[in-house]
Every structure is written in structure tokens, then in C-alpha cells.
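Can anyone check this?
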Amino acid sequence: MTTPLRISQIAMFFLLAIINPLHAETPMSDRIAVQAGVKTEIAKDLSQPYRPLETLSGRTCLDGRPVDGFQGDIAELWSNLECPYCGIQEPLQAQRDNPALCIVVRHIPTDNYGESLKKALAYEALHGFSLNAAHRFWDAVLPKTTLGIPVPYESALQTALQEAAIAPEAFADALQAAASLVSADIIAAQSRITSTPTWILEGIRFPACDFTAAELPTVLELAKKVRSGDTDAQKRVAEIITRGLLNESLL
């Protein structure tokens, strides 16, 4: 993991540590400062063309369909499998409910999160053999609330390999392919992805926004309007992102 990425993530950690306890009682001056930063980042995103069919070529949607040739909307979900807010169930439900949508998982593992790199590699390798095994693995190893204990990485992986009847040699080859994919994510995330989960919709980053399955289509439509120049939609998106960073209700 590169130093600049580590530093930016640590900076975001301290920012969130400061603003999360503020919650609904965030002083107006702090909220205005966060909003200003959000608007700047949105402007950066809108200044760049968004071509997901090019950048995500070779990848697959959560339901296994290939990105290449996909006719519909594409959403990127940047996750860390040791982030307790990065659950897989809501994105899976959103994928099931919206067949015209392709949700592509991208990874931002870090040294600060223990075994997150190994978990990311294992998930992507499993995804090529069995969607169910991959998603169950994700759900098993993800840290839960303070009352929930995740399954140890090695145990969850062994269970997934046995249930999907995956030969060790074949899995080793899949891990090599997964390493290239995850490495590409790490490079792409530098200076752009500073917290998880982060959704990218129409090229606009939504950091710290753990949308529910019901919320995602609404926000996607807003992002489309922003990309087309709708200033009212842009204000609403800025407010949604601000709420996410302040740990408030998103919609």
C-alpha cells in the first residue's frame, strides 16, 4: 500500500472521528466546512468524463454478468472487507431488484485493516467459481456490530472452498488473477477513495454512504441529473454526501 493512500485514509479517519460524535448537533460552521469540501469534490468528479465500460472492462456485476457489453447503468461499490459498514446484503438486494443495474465491487484494502487484503483476494477468487460462496464468505468475515463476531478468515475460506467444491490448485490460479484486479483497484483508489463504503454513481463519489437497496436507485437518478447539469439535483447530492460524512440519515 502506498504512503500517500495510507496518509489520506488516516486523515479521513481522524476527520470522521471528530465529526461523527457531533451527529445531529453538528455546529453550523462545521457543517458548512464539510459541505464546502463536498462541493469541491463533486466539481472535480464532474470535470472528468465517466466511461465505466472502459475502466471496468473484464469485471463482473454482483450477479455474475460481465461488464463488457452491458446495456444499462453501472455503479461502483468501493469496500473494505474489514469495514463494519460495508455489508454485502443491501447491495445484493439492490442488484436483484434492479436488473438494468450492474453493481461492480472494487476493493480498497489497507495495512490498517489487518487481513483485508487477503479477504479481498479470496472474495474475488471465489466470485469466479460461485457467486453464493463468494457472497457468503464476505458476509461471514465482515466485522459485525459490537454484539457480532465475524468468522475467522481461514475458517470462512475453507468452508467456502468445500461448499463450492473448489480444487486447491484451481483456487491458487484464481488468486493470481484476483491479485491483478485488486492491485488495479488499489492504484485507482489513490487520492480518490478515502473512506468505505464509497459508491461511484455516474462518476460522482459518495463517500461514507451505505445506501440501502431501496435508496440506491433514487440516488442514482439524482446522480444522472447532476451529470446532465441539474443544479437542484447537485445541491441535493451534496447534502446527501454531507450527511453521510456527518453520520446522519442519508435520505
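Reply from J.R.: I decoded it. The radius of gyration is 18 Å.
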